[in-house]
């Protein structure tokens, strides 16, 4: 009987496992995860989930796996792949043979140089255990320093404020959210944080972060310093490629896959945060995404292709972030945009449409209270997928329904 | 069975292939008008994370949650795949004298 083994029990691996069954795969499915839990959703960890719900919010109820015939190995580290024998070696000496293998090994937080792993007052946020440890250190009057003004750091800052902690965000670049978000939207987010009492320091040059036992300290290159009860470092993530690299698979900012998620070994696929892939909407440019929806979409696609299909990646990158009452949503990748069109909406919400030099819509970034921009961002995503060149005046006019542009 | 018919709005207040939110006595509903000009009603909140579906997008007979793109067939309430796995409850709808009514059990 055909055996499909999935290394990595996060959103992507779990989705792939269930999608195999939904698509009628009748062989064996084994899902291998290093964490003690069944697969759970990571997005809540920096948001309301930081409050430390126990158990974490599962991708699917643990009993569902048994019901559909998915073997889940938790607390199991995949240590090596023997491609010749088509075997995965696990910690503890166990080995599992595969016919086809999916690597959904995810990413891990980038560490700050010189910070030791055991520092109790200097943490990162990726796992449920991380969230519990951070939550335990936050309380009214406690001081949190967040290093890194990206999505994770800012979401954590908002959550920590809700819990009553004093919060300072330290960002090395001139503004927050500079990697993924247009300046106008980033400015609104920063202003909202300041209104909530968060101190934001941009352009900071950090020399070191130290755990002094009774307090942690962020030391700046100019000689200044900042003390906090807890420092959380959120300076991006690096793909988990060690296993693939040791097995001799091609690595290129992640495990390199083609448009069908195949690695340089046709019996091994990779999907989610760990892989880089050619994105057709961006002229085949190789990208790697760290995103919940991408993990789902690629997990589902991987399932089809593990079963012998050759389906190509078609989805448009999509991200969201919740901070206070604001939700930010982005479809597509805006770098390379030649023009931006602004569409004002009710309640201060707005969307920026990013067009390339040929007038093709390549991205849309929106922000507003609640889900004010969600519907139009979703329609923008479809316009991007369709390769459409909408009339900029129509995009700018709130009276023009985007659905009409899609039908045009 | 005693149907409790509640007036929602004028029939033309919902665009074709669209949805509105309707709150009644502490409960929230989503009321739809299909591309075929028929009306439907479901519970108002997504079964994944309690988000108002009326902020989402209606395409043919599908409502998509605005938050995480969970999809349901709003005519039957059927969940259409990850991240949603629990179906939506549906409610009978009628149009009388130009107004939409839903039967709240």
TrEMBL record, chain A:
Domain Reductase C-terminal: 318-406
Record's GO cellular component terms: cytoplasm
Domain of life, source organism: Bacteria
Cofactor(s) the protein needs: FAD
GO molecular function per UniProt: oxidoreductase activity, acting on NAD(P)H
Region (Disordered): 34-53
Domain FAD/NAD(P)-binding: 3-299
Keywords: FAD, Flavoprotein, Oxidoreductase
A Pfam family reported for this protein in Swiss-Prot or TrEMBL: Reductase_C
Positions with biased composition (Basic and acidic residues): 35-45
Protein's recorded name: Ferredoxin reductase
Organism annotation: Sinorhizobium saheli
Taxonomic classification: Bacteria, Pseudomonadati, Pseudomonadota, Alphaproteobacteria, Hyphomicrobiales
Automatic annotation (TrEMBL), chain B:
Domain Rieske: 5-102
Entry cofactors: [2Fe-2S] cluster
Pfam families to which the protein is assigned, alphabetical: Rieske (PF00355)
InterPro entries xref list: MocE_2FeS (IPR012747), Rieske_2Fe-2S (IPR017941), Rieske_2Fe-2S_sf (IPR036922)
The keyword Disulfide bond appears for this protein: no
GO molecular function annotation: 2 iron, 2 sulfur cluster binding; metal ion binding
Keywords, ordered alphabetically: 2Fe-2S, Iron, Iron-sulfur, Metal-binding
Superkingdom of origin: Bacteria
Family stated for the protein in its record: Belongs to the bacterial ring-hydroxylating dioxygenase ferredoxin component family.
Entry protein name: Rieske family ferredoxin
Organism: Sinorhizobium saheli
């Amino acid at each position: 009987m055909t055996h499909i083994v999935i290394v990595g029990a996060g959103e992507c691996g779990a989705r792939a496992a269930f999608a195999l069954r939904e698509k009628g795969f009748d062989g064996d499915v084994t899902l291998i995860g290093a964490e003690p839990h069944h697969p759970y959703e990571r997005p809540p960890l920096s948001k309301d989930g930081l409050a430390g719900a126990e158990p974490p919010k599962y991708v699917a109820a643990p009993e569902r796996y048994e019901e559909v015939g998915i073997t889940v190995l938790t607390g199991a580290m995949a240590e090596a792949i023997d491609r010749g024998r088509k075997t995965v070696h696990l910690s503890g000496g166990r080995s599992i043979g595969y016919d086809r293998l999916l690597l959904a090994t995810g990413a891990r937080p980038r560490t700050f140089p010189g910070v030791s792993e055991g520092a109790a007052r200097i943490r990162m946020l990726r796992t449920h255990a991380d969230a519990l440890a951070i939550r335990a250190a936050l309380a009214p009057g406690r001081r949190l320093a967040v290093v890194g003004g990206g999505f994770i750091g800012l979401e954590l800052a908002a959550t920590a404020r809700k819990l009553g902690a004093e919060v300072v965000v330290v960002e090395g670049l001139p503004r927050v959210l500079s990697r993924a978000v247009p300046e106008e939207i980033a400015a609104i987010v920063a202003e909202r944080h300041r209104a909530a009492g968060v101190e934001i320091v941009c352009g900071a040059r950090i020399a070191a972060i130290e755990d002094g036992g009774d307090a942690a300290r962020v030391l700046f290159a100019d000689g200044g310093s900042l003390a906090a009860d807890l420092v959380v470092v959120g300076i991006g993530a690096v793909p988990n490629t060690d296993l693939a690299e040791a097995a001799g698979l091609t690595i290129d900012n992640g495990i390199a896959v083609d448009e069908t998620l195949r690695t340089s070994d046709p019996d091994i696929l990779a999907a989610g945060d760990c892989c880089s892939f050619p994105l057709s909407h961006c002229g085949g440019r190789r990208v790697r995404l760290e995103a919940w929806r991408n993990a789902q979409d690629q997990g589902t696609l991987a399932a089809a292709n593990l079963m012998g299909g050759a389906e190509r990646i078609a989805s448009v990158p999509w991200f969201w972030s919740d901070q206070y009452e604001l939700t930010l949503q982005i479809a597509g990748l805006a770098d390379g945009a030649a023009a931006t069109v602004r569409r004002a909406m009710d309640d201060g919400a707005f969307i920026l449409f990013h067009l390339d030099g040929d007038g093709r819509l390549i991205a849309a970034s929106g922000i507003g209270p609640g889900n004010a921009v969600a519907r139009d961002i979703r329609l923008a995503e479809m316009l991007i997928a369709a390769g459409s060149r909408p009339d900029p005046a129509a995009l700018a006019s709130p009276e023009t329904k985007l659905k009409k542009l899609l039908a045009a | 069975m005693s149907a409790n018919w509640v007036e929602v709005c004028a029939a033309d207040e919902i665009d074709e292939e669209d949805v509105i939110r309707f709150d009644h006595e502490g409960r929230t509903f989503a009321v739809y008008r299909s591309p075929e000009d028929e009306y439907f009603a479901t519970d108002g909140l997504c079964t994944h994370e309690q988000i108002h579906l009326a902020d989402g997008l209606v395409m043919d007979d599908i409502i998509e949650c605005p938050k995480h793109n969970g999809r349901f067939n709003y005519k039957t309430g059927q969940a259409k795949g990850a991240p949603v796995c629990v179906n939506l409850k549906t409610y009978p709808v009628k149009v009388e004298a130009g107004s939409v009514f839903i039967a709240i059990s």
